[in-house]
Amino acid sequence: MNFHYAFLLYGLNVIIAFVIIFLERRKPNETLAWVLVLFFLPILGTVLYLIFAQNISRRKIYRLSDEEEELVRSSLDMQIQTFQREGVRLPNSDLERWQSAIELNQVHGNSFLTQMNQVDLITDGHEFLDAILTAINNARYKINMEFFIFKDDRVGSRVLKALERKAKDGVEIRLLVDALGSRRLGRHHIKKLVNHGGKVAYFFKPLFKYITLNLNYRNHRKIMVVDDAVAFVGGFNIGKEYLGYKRKFGYWRDTHLIIRGNAVQDLNAVFLLDWRVASKERLELEENYGYPVESFGSSALQIVSSGPNSDKEEIKTAMMKMIAEARDKIYLQTPYFVPDDSMMEILIMAAQSGVEVNVMIPSIPDHPFVYWANYFYCGRLLEAGANIYIYQKGFLHAKTLMVDNQVATVGSANFDRRSFRLNFETNAIIYDDVFAEKMETAFKDDVQSSKKLTLREYRDRSVWVQVKEAISILVSDIL
C-alpha cells in the first residue's frame, strides 16, 4: 500500500514538472530549481509549487476602461512621435544621449517622460519620517499612501495618528498595504482611522489568515502622494527598524525621493491602479490623470513599474539599458544582488570594457540564502575587475543605480530576480546630472563606512562558505 501511495505521489510530481517545462514556459534555471524541489520534497514540493509558482501574467488584474486606454495610449503615442521627429529636449544637452533609453521605457514600459520636476534625496530614516509626517500634516484634501511593510510599532503608530488627525479634519485618506508584509497591522490598529473616514485596503488579502495562492506575489512598492502635488518613492517602509531602532540591524541606510512636479501624477496613477485591485473601489483614472502641474525644477523623470501581471520585466529592462549605455562609471547599491544570467553578463561586459563598476551590498544578512548568493555573484564581478564594497555601519537597504553622473534610478526594486519578476515594484528614473552627482556623493560617503572586498580575499574563502554559496545559487531562481 505504501508503495502505491509513493508511486502516485511521484506521479503527481512528474505531472507538475511536465506543466512547468511544457506549459508554463519557465526559464531553464527556474525549471531546474523547481524540478529539484519536487524530486527531493515530493509532498512539500507540490504544496510549495501550488503556492509559490503559479503564473499570474495571464490574469488581467489591472483593467482600464476603453476611455482610459485611449487617454493613456494617445498621450504616450503623441510623445513618442514628437521625440522621434524632433528629438528629446533636455536642460543639459549632454543628457540627450539617453534618448534611446527614454524611448525604450516609453515603448516597453509605457512610461511618460515628464520634465520640470524637483527631486530631493533622502538617505536617513529620521529624515524620511520627518518628511512624510510634514507632508501629512500639511495635506489639505487627499493622501494616498502605499507601503509593503507598515508596522504597528512606535513609528507606525506615529504615522497612523497623523493620518487619523487629518481624516478627522476631512482629508480623504487611502492607505494601501501588502497583506503579507503588513500582516501584523490588524483591524484594531486602523479602527480609529476608519472611524474618522479613512479607507484602508490590503493587497492580495488572503481568504484565510496567511493562506493564499498569491503568497509569492507581493506589492513591494513604497509610494505616498499628497494633494496631487508632492510624492514619495523609494526603499523605506514604515517601522522602527527603518529608523535604526532594531538592535539586529543597527543603523538603517536606505534611499527615498521626494518629487514635486509633473511626475507626481504618474506615481498617483500607480497607486490608483493598485487601489482598484485591492479595494475594488472604482476610481476613474481620467479624473486624476493628465491635469497640468506647476513647474518646480529641471529634472526629467520616468516612472517605471513592473510586476508579475506582465512578463516584460520593465524595470529590469530599463536598468539593463542604463548599464549597456555606460561609458565611464556605474554605482549600484542593493541589499539583494541576485541577478539573472542576462543582468550578470551585461555587468561583466561593462567591467571588462573599461567601465568602472562599483557595487555595494550589506554585511548583515536578513536572509541567509540571499546573503550567500550575493557573495557568489559579487565574486564573479570581482573576477571581471569590478569594485565590491560591503557596508559595515548597519544594514544597507538602498536600491539605487547611477550611470556616468547623468542618469539614476531609485525605487523599491532590488537587483534580484524576485524584484524583477515576482514583486510589484516602482522606480523613478531621473535624467539630471546635478542629481546624479548627489547620488555619487552619497555612494562615496557610504564607501567610508564599507569594507572593500578583494579578489584574493574572495578566493581564499572557506570551503563552508563555498558550500553555502552553492546551495544558495541552486535555489536562487525561486528565492
Notes on the protein architecture:
By secondary structure, this protein is α/β, with parallel strands linked by helices. 44% of the residues lie in helices and 21% in strands. The protein contains 16 helices and 18 strands. It has helices spanning 2-23, 28-40, 42-52, 66-86, 99-109, 125-138, 154-168, 187-195, 263-279, 314-324, 341-352, 368-384, 417-421, 433-447, 455-459, 463-474, and strands spanning 114-124, 142-147, 172-178, 199-203, 222-226, 230-234, 251-260, 299-306, 329-333, 337-338, 356-362, 387-391, 394-396, 400-403, 407-411, 415-416, 425-431, 450-453. The protein has a 16-stranded mixed β-sheet that branches. A two-stranded parallel ribbon has the order 10-16. The longest helix has 22 residues, at 2-23. It starts with a helix and ends in a 5-residue tail after the last helix. 44% of the residues are buried.
What characteristic shape results from the CA principal axes?
Answer: globular
Strand content: 15-25%
* Main sheet: strands, sense, barrel: 16 strands, mixed
Assembly type of the chains comes to single chain
Portion in helices: 40-55%
Low-pLDDT residue intervals, each spanning 5 or more residues:
none
Q: N- to C-terminal separation?
A: 36 Å
Mean pLDDT: 87
Q: What is the gyration radius calculated from CA atoms?
A: 23 Å
Task: Report the count of strand segments.
Answer: 18
Number of helices: 16
Q: Specify the structural class.
A: alpha/beta
